[in-house]
Amino acid sequence: MDILMSNWSNVGQSLPENYIFPPDKRPGKHVFPVLKDVPVIDLGHDRAEVIQQILSASQDFGFFEVINHDVPISLMEDTMNVFKELFGMEAEYKASFYSTEISKKCRLYSSTMNYDNEEVHYWRDNLTHHCYPLQDQIELWPQKPTRYRKVVGAYSIEARKFLLRILDHIREGLGLKPGYFNGELSKIQLLSVNHHIPCPNPSLTLGMPEHSDPNLITVLQQCSVPGLQFFRNGQWMNVESITDRLIVVPGLQLKVISNGRFSSPIHRVITNSEEYRTTIGTFLIPSNEIVIEPSKDCAGDDHDPVYRGFTYKEFFSAFTESNCDARIALEFFKNKTK
Ligand code: OGA
Ligand code: NI
Question: Which residues line ligand 1 (CB under 6 A)?
């Protein structure tokens, strides 16, 4: 059978064995509670107020949703439709993008980049490509659907603008100097589109493992089909899928820079038996050689730095070595407590 699940013509009645997780990792047959108290930030409000809200949302809750974000809703819809169309295209076309090579700057794969060595696969296909600087990357992108480059190009610009705006609020809230997150700390922009076909038995498998995002910051656009869960107060909880909002998830590098004030929440994706689910993630990532460390303003005289400085390259090799578990990788850079 084709590795890409979106090419399967018939999924069948039961879940293939190599998608069944061990009992302790399965979501089970629970009806998961819905997160009712996700902070909603209105970017149209007064800047000082927004800064306070973003800071307390990140520190006390872990992540937040944004309305009045200035990313045109029609562009969000167009982009979502382009990705749905792409995943519906013929197998041969999609196969030309298939790769598990990290060096490939535009790739389609299934489950994780470690597909060939996995015992159990995650129930997802994924499209990942670089987006910045646009003119250097766009030539590598799909050309079908024919509007792909135009629409996704416009979306990438808006998503970057949005994340830099959020980062500037965070910067001011943490007392960091203007431009702190611009440049090398946010140099790499990756688009990551998850696509899950309907699953015969959602209680036995996962669409994405539990994880914290390894990057600096993430924005997620959901479709109307739920699946994203956060681990909160000792249990997994569903995020309501509201298609015109953007979900901001601080990554582990923000946890380091803020000296632990930000937490980078744990989340995962479950599947469903009825509908296709597509989500659009945009990640800002530090360039390889830049040193990431607790900022002097966050780890002041009375706060010892919790982490030692490291380059993103060092972090990324620790990440691969720890089986792509970013939280384990980060432990490696923790200072010993006196
Ligand atoms: C991610 C992620 C969630 C989703 O890409 O890191 O957590 O809803 N995605 O697809
Ligand atoms: Ni994530």
Answer: 192, 194, 208, 213, 218, 220, 228, 267, 269, 279, 281
Ligand nearest to the CA of 206: 1
Atom of ligand 1 nearest to the CA of 281: 5
Ligand 2 ion local residues (Cβ < 5 A)? 213
Mutate to test the pocket of ligand 1, among 208, 230, 264 (most ligand atoms within 8 A of CB): 208
Closest ligand 1 atom, residue 279 Cα: 10
Residue-wise pLDDT tens for the chain (338 aa)? 699 999 998 888 899 999 999 999 999 999 999 999 999 999 999 999 999 999 999 999 999 999 999 999 999 999 999 999 999 999 999 999 999 999 999 999 999 999 999 999 999 999 999 999 999 999 999 999 999 999 999 999 999 999 999 999 999 999 999 999 999 999 999 999 999 999 999 999 999 999 999 999 999 999 999 999 999 999 999 999 999 999 999 999 999 999 999 999 999 999 999 999 999 999 999 999 999 999 988 877 767 899 999 999 999 999 988 888 888 999 999 998 76
pTM of this structure: 0.97
The residue assigned the tokens 């209680």 is 203
- Nearest CA, atom 6, ligand 1: 213
Nearest CA to ligand 1 atom 9: 281
